[in-house]
Specification:
Blueprint (H helix, E strand, L loop, with lengths): L1 E4 L4 H11 L6 E5 L5 E5 L7 E5 L6 H17 L4 E6 L18 H12 L3 E5 L14 E4 L2 H11 L4 E5 L5 H10 L3 E11 L2 E8 L6 E9 L3 H12 L5 E8 L3 H9 L4 E5 L12 E4 L2 H12 L9 E2 L2 E2 L2
Parallel strand pairs: 1-4, 4-5, 5-6, 6-7, 8-9, 8-11, 11-12, 12-13, 13-14
Antiparallel strand pairs: 2-3, 9-10, 15-16
Helix pairs in contact: 1-8
């Protein structure tokens, strides 16, 4: 087994290798002056079971091309099996035709991964779970929830209400509420533009309660901050937000700084430097991904990674 990393999140790749005591594979991934990507695998991979770790975080297209080129290089170097490990799967929000003459880009990315040489995919917390069906190769879909649940249980949060910031996230919020023995509430929202949403109503009792808003990803933080403002208006005490993938562009950072969110809990699926003025707790999913990689290599079951304390994340 060999594990290689692109430039999207090398720290996570190194942590994955450390968790299962496998050295990180040596490769050169650089950029020519004209912007083209150059890849060279610096060690023998003939007949090896190879894993390529690359989050497709911004710049999304650049990181995708790095991954495609790395897999092509590995295929042409006679690797026996190539598994694309995408802790964050970009373009997952473009999973259907919701208006005329638009692409289904999540399906296009799936086709390109297979064309580049992927024999298998390992990913985490897809924005739309049906994306697994876009592939005709095996897909192992992990959840960050067990890592996040363990962290929240250790904090012994009291008087807690778990809030879904929209109707689509209700299933995830319900799972969190069950595990944390908390109440459940929903925020109804209206999307005004791709970067702006408006929270319009709260279903559930949140007055005088500590609130945990849960979602799968945030970039501009519009959904989270508008929900937090409405919850504060309705009497919420401490407000925390919990997301698996925090991409956080400049607009999102500025909104969070001005928001009523006291703490953002997230994971290291995407690389993120320290952000002054924000209280961010980052949990590592390296152990979870490392264990999944080890089990895939050994042709063992990964089902138990979804199970904890008698329950399931899905």
């Amino acid at each position: 087994m060999k594990i290689f990393s692109g430039n999207a999140n090398p720290l996570l790749a190194k942590a994955i290798c450390d968790s299962i005591q496998v050295p990180l594979g040596r490769c050169t991934v650089s950029t020519f002056p004209d912007g083209e990507t150059f890849v060279k695998i610096d060690e023998n991979v003939r007949g090896h079971d190879v894993f390529v770790v690359q989050s497709t975080s911004p710049p999304t297209n650049h990181h995708l091309m790095e991954m495609f080129i790395m897999m092509d290089a590995l295929r042409r170097s006679s690797a026996s099996r190539i598994t694309a490990v995408l802790p964050f799967y970009g373009y997952a929000r473009q999973d259907r035709k919701d208006q005329p003459r638009v692409p289904i880009t999540a399906k296009l990315v799936a086709n390109l991964l297979v064309a580049a040489g992927a024999n298998r995919v390992l990913t985490m917390d897809l924005h739309a779970q049906q994306i697994q069906g876009f592939f005709d190769i095996p897909v192992d879909h992990l959840y960050a929830a067990p890592v996040i649940y363990e962290h929240l249980h250790d904090r012994k949060l009291r008087n807690l209400v778990v809030v879904s910031p929209d109707v689509g996230g209700l299933k995830m919020a319900y799972a969190y509420a069950q595990q944390l023995d908390a109440e459940l509430a929903i925020v109804a929202k209206r999307r005004k533009s791709p970067t702006e949403t408006e929270a319009t109503a709260v279903i559930g009792d949140i007055a005088g309660k500590n609130v945990l808003i849960v979602d799968d990803l945030t970039e501009t933080a519009g959904t989270l901050t508008s929900a937090a403002a409405l919850l504060k208006e309705r009497g919420a005490e401490k407000i925390m937000a919990c997301v698996s993938h925090a991409l956080l562009n400049e607009l999102g950072i500025e909104r969070l700084r001005k928001s009523f969110i006291d703490e953002l809990i997230t994971t290291d699926t995407v690389a993120r430097s320290a952000i002054p003025g924000l209280n961010i707790t980052s949990l590592s999913v390296a152990g979870l991904l490392g264990e999944a990689i080890k089990r895939i290599h050994q042709n063992a079951s990964v089902t138990s990674l979804f199970e904890f304390k008698g329950g399931r994340t899905s």
